[in-house]
Amino acid sequence: MISRDKVMxxxxxxxxxxxxxSVLAQSCPVDVPNPIHIDNGNISVYEQGKPKLLIDxxxxxxxxxxxxxxxxxxxxxxxxxxxxxxxxxxxxAQLAQEGVGMAxxxxxxxxxxxxxxDAFKNVETLIAQFGQQAHEKFYNQxxxxxxxxxxxxxxxxxxxxxxxxxxxxxxxQSIASLFAALSDEMKNGDVDFTQLQSxxxxxxxxxxEQMTQxxxxxxxxxxxxxxxxxxxxxxxKQLQQVIPQLKGIPMFEI
Length: 254
Known about the structure:
The chain is of the alpha+beta class and 254 residues long. Helix content is 66%, strand content 10%. The protein contains 6 helices and 6 strands; from the N terminus they run αβββββαααβαα. Helix 1 packs antiparallel against helix 5 and helix 1 (2-24) packs parallel to helix 6. The protein is elongated, with a radius of gyration of 23 Å. The protein starts with a helix and ends in a 12-residue tail after the last helix.
């Protein structure tokens, strides 16, 4: 029995680690030297807590609050770049939420297998809390999307440490929840030991297949997003050639 419990615990925790740490820690060979804010069609690059560069929803450019006079060609280049930034950067937050959704789905599968939704409520609450924390990594209290400075290096260090600590809490709660569900079924005489072993084996196979498929899908999305952000960095270099004033306020460095 204990070995089966350990298997299920590792299965749950492995899924949660995948959905949080591994997905969020998808590194790209791109540096983000300053926070980038996106809100209602406006893009701002902040330095020392203040907007240094603004590309507004009309594709006008302001540096330190002063408007930069643009030719029609320059403004068209700004428009193309702005559209791509607003398309791709918020996908970072969407990917994080997909990971949380994956963890929630797997937890639901486990709970349904034991006909014991209540036993896993505490784990569900923890996952929801971690989902909110992931959301807050990319959205401020005003509802603006914010790409934090040094986001990719922080994912590999600070963020990974945070999520690993959080997952330890989930592991403890998962074990307690699983034992509670098993205890209910054994008390009620719903299954005997042989049936329980069979249920564990079937559940492990089903969840392993589900996790493999969905984790592969998420990895493809993460790799694609990384490629898109690399493309933004290259596009920014081209924009800086067209508008030299932007060279001193980079969004990306590669």
